[in-house]
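In this section we walk through a basic example: taking a raw amino acid sequence and producing a predicted 3D structure, encoded as discrete structure tokens. The instruction is simple. Fold the sequence below.
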Amino acid sequence: MDTMRWTDDGILELLDQTRLPAEVIYLKCTTPGEVAAAIRCLAVRGAPAIGAAAAFGLVLACRQLKDLPVEAFTAGVGKAARDLAATRPTAVNLHWALERLTRRLKTSGIRDPEALCAVLLAEALDLHNEDVAGNRKMGLYGQALIPAEARILTHCNAGALATAGYGTALGVIRAARKAGKKISVYAGETRPLLQGARLTVWEMLQENIPVTLITDNMAGYLMARGMVDLVLVGADRIAANGDVANKIGTYSLAVLAGEHNLPFYVAAPVSTIDLSLASGQEIPIEERDPGEVTHLAGLPVAPGGVTVWNPAFDVTPHRLITAVITDRGIVRAPCGEGLRELFNERKN
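The resulting token sequence is shown next.
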């Protein structure tokens, strides 16, 4: 199932993940505002996926502005990039993708807006295709860490739905399965929006990978019973020292994994590394609508008027991470220096 599709007539089709698993519906986006709204409401989600979607959103902005003089065109594209970047603050891939396209715009040497639209579309398509290829490489690197018969606990959704295709953490699981390993998955439901229950379980069932759904508060007992061999998650931003921001609840799993002497692996592309931030304390953490906690499928599950704290992500300290699996290779703890080397290698 494609997370997103760019059509020949210039429409970005986004799989509406808020409707899964009940319905498979594609949103047809023709403006950058529609793409921004889809990112904001989590119709498209996952750090690599929102980066790729935003890149196509910027192409849609270019097409709206192509009849303007080049100075006004450039200013309008810049504003569209800022609007798209403001949709979600934590995932660095969003900002990285937009910066990549705006840099391409500035360095192209082209002054014709219509020609610039073609340049940016080619860049967005390259970014999309590179993400899929990088995820497959990540899977091949990561599967080497997976035992022949592994019971894997994962959190949220780091699969094809969270990327341009194939997946990060679930991509490693797919690659291990393809290598002939006997894999089974425990998926935490991931409150409050149930991305694990709705999305990860759906992906695993689509591929006939054995999966068991648990509530988030069962993870510690699962480990204590010796029913899991490792924890494998994705990431939305990785600081220079190796601290990782990921879906809320990841930190708890890392602490529990450490208590039970289980490996804790993070899978993410190099584009998720943010060397501008020294540690996870500097990562901006998105706080979302209280209604996501007080309501489920539109029905209240808490008394009206209750105060709610709803951070979408938490930060796992690097000391709790066994290794980071990237599209450039595996970085083992302590991860800071290795991540810097991979990031700089990618830039060069």
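Looking at the output, two observations stand out. The chain has eleven helices and 16 strands. The CA atoms of residues 227 and 304 lie 39 Å apart. In the next section we compare this with other chains.
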